[in-house]
């Protein structure tokens, strides 16, 4: 078994619980790169660059899905008000679509990744549902690739997210992204 690989046998017993991102940053980075590579998504080389900063943010949520002790999925997020960098990146695109209000009382999902061996088994849905129970904000927002990302966008659409910006350039990179949002289920 190579690093990051999860062998599935018998009934899956996934355990969800918060973790310390400062302690688990390397495992999170490996999981994110594995999941993004398997999905053919760009940006894997950049993933994790902000983990140390995210770990220090007030209101940070780091939620893990563990299968036999291995990190099989993760969700990272924080209140939008605590991430000025994010607000600066998305404000113009939101404003152009008259959706700047989506930053008010919003929780941002920074990362949601599931190991390819356990995708389509409900792990991502379970992580989102657990995060919904833990956060108090009225809205949930996230950024996702605008092109070549149908499966991910469909995953979020089925869970109530809608596109709230047009495609825009992300961080002066080649990548174009969309902001998705939904009212946080209660």
Automatic annotation (TrEMBL):
Domain N-acetyltransferase per the UniProt entry, residue ranges: 14-185
InterPro entries recorded: Acyl_CoA_acyltransferase, GNAT_dom
GO MF terms, alphabetically ordered: acyltransferase activity, transferring groups other than amino-acyl groups
Transmembrane segments: none
Protein name: N-acetyltransferase domain-containing protein
Organism: Saccharopolyspora rectivirgula
Organismal lineage: Bacteria, Bacillati, Actinomycetota, Actinomycetes, Pseudonocardiales
